[in-house]
Design a protein that fits this description.
The complex is a heterodimer. Chain A is an all-alpha fold. Helices cover 78% and strands 0% of the residues of chain A. The radius of gyration of chain A is 41 Å and the shape is rod-shaped. Chain B is mostly helical. The chains are: A mainly alpha, B mainly alpha. The interface between A and B is medium-sized, with 35 and 35 residues.
């Protein structure tokens, strides 16, 4: 009995032994072959799968681009989202989706996509530019400036250099809006150096220089434009304005006359031209005028100042000097009035100086109290400013 | 040098030293080498790699199948037509019901419990047709928009493939039992692209214990399946992870709030399943043909009404939530609707997994809580994306009740260890709340509803373990010294009523002697001999207070008392333990 059991155990052991030694390696070989076949089969499926997804992604992306070009932002968003289903990390798809979302004013969502793209490629100019625009729109000036700078110094394709200039122009607009004149001027100077002699861009830069109150650079930019476009009305008006603000009234007159001639509808230049002509006519200190003419101008200016004084009620305390013991401007004008005649001025040249001194003081003070004057008073005020350095 | 330390020094006997490979080769025949290679424990490791490869390939094909189902059933765009939204899940539900009831009855549900059943009831046996059925029905269900995920089915497919391989290799019963979890880990790792989480989940929820024998195989299969999956599908994670940064410790309070919300949501979700699933199962059999279709129709209606995000696994929407694409109000609505949609799909018996919906709900809830906190407390700097990431872990801990996996899953998916503290805090809150309000974990509840009694991993984890120190008694009688004479020992023993006494041997070790033996030896005239010379050479084994009590069971029937000694000094007696002490302690423990 026990021997039989022992034999059975031995037989079973032998079977297992044989199985381990023979069948297991064989089965392992079979499984290896099956794994290879399964692998090849899956490879085929994977190729098919990838090709299909790529095709679907491309198809939806093309539809999205068409929608975006047609400014159908809602459709474009759906199409780009569909494209991203098949290529989740596709940079171009995400960028276009962000642009479509911006078109729909969904800046929060667009911003999320753009920031993700920025994480991947912080030097992408377009992403930085869009992020700067979003930050600018949200009033985050410092962040916007940072993104604009990154956009300006980003890597742009050679045929996209204009986008770099656009980024700088937008930055300048932002800086001017935020009253950061110095930074704006610095950016404008850099921009001006980059654009060369392109008349249209120089005209745009000149206008921005005007807004930044850098009239010298503005005049230079407009002159570059006028070199190649002599009749450009905007450049002429800009140059006229710059010369006017610089106190170069003869030059301003020249440009403004040309500007009005080139564009008769330019009322601003026409007004400025009138003022310029008045300044030139009413300035008694200008050269190449006779003594009689000068005296006549002084008498006229004195009378205008008196009228201005009577129209603008200055407080009693307003005096020309620091000491309150000094007589008021009105008292001074009244006491000087009998003396200011062409005959007296001819006899006493020093009276010309003191009369004009009082006239210019009256114009300055009344402009402080009653606001910027117009017409002849404005001309006198500008003459006062022009000769401030000589006082 | 301390003599004690010297005596503890381990000396490896000559026969036990590992020979150099060349020596081994010289001394053994090629047959020995062949035999050694195919020894079952080593062979099992080789098989684990094969299981990983097959599971990885199967999961890749499964992913393709799901995507193709979606493309052909729901369409290729994001704007789906109402007709498709309503018809695709409904008609697919009908087909699935027929397939499940007529051909693949074992594919119902998620697959985790079926794998556990294979381990504990069926000796690792899972029919191959289960893998086929799960592949087809789950791909159809998820692709048509049922609110289910691919992870649990992948786990079951992996386990079924492993089972087939094990059977063909005629593995022993012990190995066959372990092969299903090995395949499960491989399937889950490939589906989730996260091998560590897969290994942890299988250890935590399927096997329930850490053993070196199985750990190596599970890790090997998981890693090889992930390698295969990445070969075909790339290494990118299921969703793009936003930058995670914890700037102020006070922000942890916000995460604690997320944990509370997640815990409550988990309870709502599991209570829904606990209530609805038995009722659906109790309905007449013919209704089971229509249950998946009705669930599909209701999900289609939810989608048509403006929330198509609830359909399918929804990973793309988790990605969008993480990147701030939805308002917090909409995210909260989506979380609620997804719970409803998943309840409908799951209780109707549609095959598919719970992992992806759990992650979806967690991400939406997390992003909603983050968005709301950001709205009401704008000074908080954390992005909703970070909350979404933590939220996924929260639901995993609260609903699936896999706390360790939940933490490591978030770490593995995010690749960012700075998130560990928020995750632990939020998960702990969710787990504690869920455990307090819903004592039975979801997987245990499902097995009980199916009429099975599988071991509860949660209960096992929390089961108290008795140690020797819980049962040992203090030494009441004298401890005899082996160097003393028999007469001296008798005089000492005379003062005690104990029948058995411990003897401290020299230079180390312990023995026991009964009073009767002492008297008998004395009667034979051996009173002048030392006690050590009169006792058997075999010494009594000793125990330490921290040994599990079951260790004591191995010895207490052979010796009347066992010494319990300090680990620092084996001659220092901490107490004694007897068979009666052990049994008494177990009896008390059993009575609670």
């Amino acid at each position: 009995m026990f021997e039989e059991q022992e034999d059975a155990v031995k037989t079973e052991g032998l079977v297992n032994y044989r199985f381990y030694l023979r069948q297991r390696p064989v089965m392992l070989g079979v499984f290896t072959a099956l794994a290879v076949i399964f692998f090849l089969f899956t490879s085929g499926l994977a190729r098919l799968y990838r090709a299909q997804r790529e095709s679907l992604g491309t198809r939806w992306f093309s539809r999205g681009v068409a929608e975006l070009n047609a400014k159908n932002y809602s459709g474009a968003v759906n199409d780009f989202r569909a494209a991203l289903l098949y290529s989740r990390d596709n940079y171009t798809y995400q960028l276009n989706l962000a642009e479509a979302l911006l078109g729909l004013k969904r800046t929060g969502q667009a911003s999320a996509y753009l920031l993700n793209l920025w994480d991947r490629e912080p030097e992408d100019g377009l992403v930085n530019l869009e992020l700067a625009r979003i930050a600018s729109g949200q009033g985050q000036v410092q962040q916007a400036i940072r993104f604009y700078h990154d956009a300006i110094y980003a890597a742009w394709a050679s045929d996209e250099e204009w986008k770099r200039r656009d980024a700088r122009l937008e930055l300048i607009e932002l800086l001017l809006g935020a009253k950061q004149q110095e930074q704006a001027e610095a950016e404008l100077i850099a921009l001006s150096a980059n654009v060369g002699d392109d008349p249209q861009q120089q005209e745009q830069i000149g206008t921005l220089f005007l807004r930044a109150q850098d009239y010298e650079h503005a005049l230079r930019a407009f002159r570059i434009t006028l070199k190649s476009e002599r009749r450009n009305p905007a450049a002429l008006a800009g140059a006229g304005e710059a010369a006017f603000e610089l106190g170069r009234y003869s030059l301003a007159e020249h440009y403004l006359q040309s500007a009005v001639a080139a564009n008769p509808n330019d009322q601003q230049s026409a007004d400025r031209l009138k003022t310029t002509e008045l300044v030139l006519q009413m300035d008694p200190f200008r050269r190449q005028i006779t003594t009689a003419e000068r005296n006549r101008i002084v008498v006229q200016a004195f009378q205008l100042a008196g009228q201005r004084l009577s129209n603008c009620a200055l407080p009693k305390s307003v005096t020309p000097g620091p000491a309150s013991t000094q007589p008021s401007l009105s008292d001074q004008w009244t006491s000087l009035k009998p003396q200011v005649t062409e005959a007296n001025l001819r006899r006493d040249p020093d009276l010309v100086e003191s009369t004009m001194d009082l006239v210019l003081q009256i114009e300055r003070q009344t402009s402080v109290v009653c606001g910027t004057p117009s017409g002849t008073d404005l001309a006198l005020l500008l003459i006062a400013k022009l000769h401030e350095g000589n006082q | 040098m301390d003599p004690q330390a010297k005596s503890d020094t381990v000396v490896i006997p000559e026969s036990s030293r590992i020979p150099h490979a060349s020596v081994w080769m010289r001394e053994h025949s090629p047959l020995d080498l062949w035999r050694a290679m195919f020894r079952e424990d080593r062979f099992f490791l080789v098989l684990s790699v094969f299981i990983g490869v097959f599971s990885g390939l199967a999961v890749v094909c499964f992913r393709f199948a799901i995507d193709w189902s979606r493309l052909y059933l729901l369409g290729t765009g994001v704007e789906l037509t109402r007709a498709r939204l309503l018809l695709a899940p409904t008609l697919a539900g009908l087909v699935i019901a027929v397939l499940v009831i007529r051909f693949f009855p074992a594919t119902r549900g998620s697959g985790v419990n079926q794998t556990k059943a294979a381990l504990y009831i069926y000796n690792g046996h899972i029919p191959f047709r289960t893998a086929i059925g799960k592949f087809i029905t789950a791909a159809l269900a998820i692709g048509s928009g049922h609110s289910l995920g691919p992870e649990d089915p992948s786990l079951q497919i992996g386990a079924a493939l492993a089972s087939v391989i094990g059977r063909k290799m005629r593995l022993s019963r012990d190995r066959m039992r372990l092969i299903a979890p090995v395949g499960a880990a491989a399937g889950l790792a490939a589906a989730f692209n996260a091998p560590i989480s897969a290994v942890l989940f299988v250890i935590e929820e399927v096997i329930g214990r850490w053993t070196a024998g199985i750990l190596g195989s599970v890790v090997l299969s998981a890693v090889s399946s992930v390698v295969v999956m990445r070969w075909f599908l790339g290494s990118e994670s299921l969703f793009r992870i936003p930058a995670v940064e914890l700037r102020r410790p006070s922000e942890l309070i916000a995460y604690a709030a997320l944990g509370v919300v997640g815990g409550l949501a988990s309870v709502t979700f599991s209570s829904g399943i606990a209530t609805l699933r038995p009722r659906c199962k109790a309905l007449p059999r013919w209704t089971q043909y229509f249950q998946p279709a009705i669930a599909g129709l209701l999900i289609g209606i939810i989608a048509a009404l403006g929330a198509p995000q609830v359909m399918g696994a929804g990973y793309e929407y988790i990605d969008q939530a993480m990147h701030g694409q939805f308002t917090w109000e909409f995210l909260a609505i989506l979380a609620g609707l997804k719970i409803l949609a998943t309840l409908l799909s799951f209780v109707s018996g549609t095959p598919g997994g719970m992992f992806a919906p759990t992650l979806f709900i967690g991400a939406m809830l997390g992003a909603a809580v983050g968005g709301a906190e950001h709205y009401f407390l704008p000074h908080l700097t954390i992005s909703p994306g970070t909350y979404a990431l933590v939220g996924m872990g929260v639901l995993f801990a609260g609903f699936l009740r896999a706390p360790m996996t939940s933490v490591f899953m978030v770490l593995e998916v995010s690749g960012n260890y700075s998130i560990i503290v928020p995750v632990i805090i939020a998960n702990t809150f969710a787990y504690v709340i869920s455990r307090g309000l819903q004592p039975i974990a979801i997987f245990d509840m499902l097995t009980r509803q199916d009429g099975l009694e599988l071991p509860s991993m949660e209960e096992q984890r929390e089961e108290g373990i008795l140690h020797v120190e819980d049962a040992m008694q203090r030494v009441r009688g004298p401890v005899l010294d082996a160097e003393r004479t028999l007469d001296e020992a008798l005089r000492e023993a005379d003062h005690t009523e104990l029948r058995h006494l411990l003897v401290r041997m020299s230079p180390s070790g312990w023995s026991t002697v009964s009073k009767d033996e002492l008297f008998s030896m004395s009667a034979k005239g051996k009173g002048g001999a030392t006690l050590g010379s009169l006792l058997d050479e075999e010494q009594v084994p000793y125990l330490h207070p921290d040994h599990p009590l079951e260790t004591a069971l191995r010895y207490v029937d052979r010796w009347p008392i066992i010494p319990v000694v300090s680990r620092a000094n084996f001659q220092q007696l901490e107490g004694v333990i007897s068979e009666r002490d052990v049994l008494e302690r177990y009896r008390e423990f059993g009575e609670g």
